[in-house]
Amino acid sequence: MEYNFIKIEHTQGITILKISAPKSLNALNSTILKELSDCLSHLDAATRVLIITGDGEKSFVAGADISEMAHLNEAQGYEFGRLGAQVFRAIETLPIPVIAAVNGFALGGGCELAMACDIRIASSKAKFGQPEVGLGIIPGFSGTYRLPKIVGQGHAKEMIYTGKVIRADEALRIGLVNAVYEPEQLMEKAVEMAQMMLHNAPVAISLAKQSINEGYDLDADAAIALENKLFGKCFATSDQKEGMDAFLNKRQAEFNGK
Questions:
Q1: What pLDDT score does 62 carry?
Q2: What gap in Å lies between CA 213 and CA 245, rounded to an integer?
Q3: Are 223 and 215 spatial neighbours (Cβ–Cβ below 8 Å)?
Q4: Beta 59-61 vs 105-107: how paired, if at all?
Q5: Which positions are annotated as active-site residues?
Q6: What whole-number distance in Å separates Cα of residue 52 and Cα of residue 39?
Q7: Which residues of the chain have pLDDT under 70?
Q8: What contacts 223, CB < 8 A, 6 or more positions away?
Q9: DSSP state of 184
Q10: What is the pLDDT of residue 57?
C-alpha cells in the first residue's frame, strides 16, 4: 500500500513512523487510520522498536478530523470510533516496544494515540488534552479506558470533563509522560531509549510486555500465574541461554530473538 500521510524510516532495528498531514496538523481521518493499520501489519521484519511521532514542529496529532466527523450519524460515528480503537489496540498489542515521541499538540485522538504506545516522551512544547466534550462527543478511540489507567480516575475525569489542555510539565507531573526534553533533543532521546532496548533480549521484552498488558486487568493471583507461565517460557529460548552464559563469562550477550 502506498502511503500519502505516513513516512517511514528504518535504522538498525528501529522504525520511525511519522504521521504527516501538515495542513491539518496531522489530524486523524479514516484514510490516515487505514494507512496506520496497514503500516502496522507490514512493519519491517527487522523492527525491534517502533517510534511514533508527528511530522513538523507544531503537532504530534492535533486530534481526529472534525471536518470528517461533523456530519456522521450514530452508526457512522460508531464505525469511525471502532476503526480508531482497533488501530490503537493493534499498536498496544504489538509484540515490540512502541515509543511515542510527542513533538507538539497531542489532543483528542492524538492523546489517545500516544496512550496506546508503551512509553511516552514529550517535547517541552507538547500539549495534551481530551477536549471532545466541547464538541458534543466523548473520547472515541479508547481514551476513557486508557487515560484513567495511566493517570488515575481523578486526573482523567478532570481532563475529560473540563476538556482542558495541559502542558508537558503537567503531563509529566501526573504520569502521562515519562520524560520531557527540549524540542531539538526529543528524537535523539527517543532513539537513545530504543537503542537501550536493542541491547536486551527481544523475546524477553515481548513476553514482559505481554505479562504487563494482559496481567493489568487480572486479579493478583491470575496476574502472578500469568507471569510465572511467561517466566517459564523464557527458559525455552536461546536468548536466555545466551544471556546467562554471557553474564557468567563476563562478556556482551549477542541475542538472536529466539
A1: 96
A2: 29
A3: yes
A4: parallel
A5: 112, 132
A6: 12
A7: none
A8: 215, 216
A9: G
A10: 87
Residues 6+ apart with CB under 8 A from 44: 10, 15
- CA–CA separation, 185 and 189 (whole Å): 6
Residue with cell 557468567: 248
Which residue type, as a one-letter code, is found at position 69? Answer: M
Task: Provide the strand spans (E) within the chain.
Answer: 6-11, 14-19, 49-54, 59-61, 98-102, 105-107, 119-123, 127-129, 165-167, 179-181
Q: Which residue has the cell 526529543?
A: 186
pTM score, whole prediction: 0.96
Give the C-alpha separation, 132 to 109, whole Å: 9
HSE, CB side, 13 Å, CA atoms: give it for residue 84.
Answer: 26
Residue 24 has what pLDDT? 95
Q: How many CA atoms lie within 13 A of 95 on its CB side?
A: 12
Distances (CA, A) of 57 to 105, 145, 178, 254: 9, 29, 20, 37
pLDDT digits (tens, 9 = 90+) for 43-55: 999 999 999 999 9
Kindly report the backbone phi and psi dihedral angles of residue 144, in degrees, each rounded to the nearest multiple of 5, phi listed first: -70, -15
Q: Which of 136, 149, 46 is nearest to 92 (CA)?
A: 149
Give the other-Cβ count within 10 Å of 194's Cβ.
24
Residue type, 165: V
The three grid cell numbers given for residue 156, joined into one nine-digit string: 482523567
Distance CA 122, CA 187 (A): 10
Pairing label, strands 98-102, 119-123: parallel
Per-position DSSP letters for 112-174, written without gaps between them: HHHHHSSEEEEETT-EEE--GGGGT----SSHHHHHHHHH-HHHHHHHHHH--EEEHHHHHHT
Chain mean position to CA 171:
15
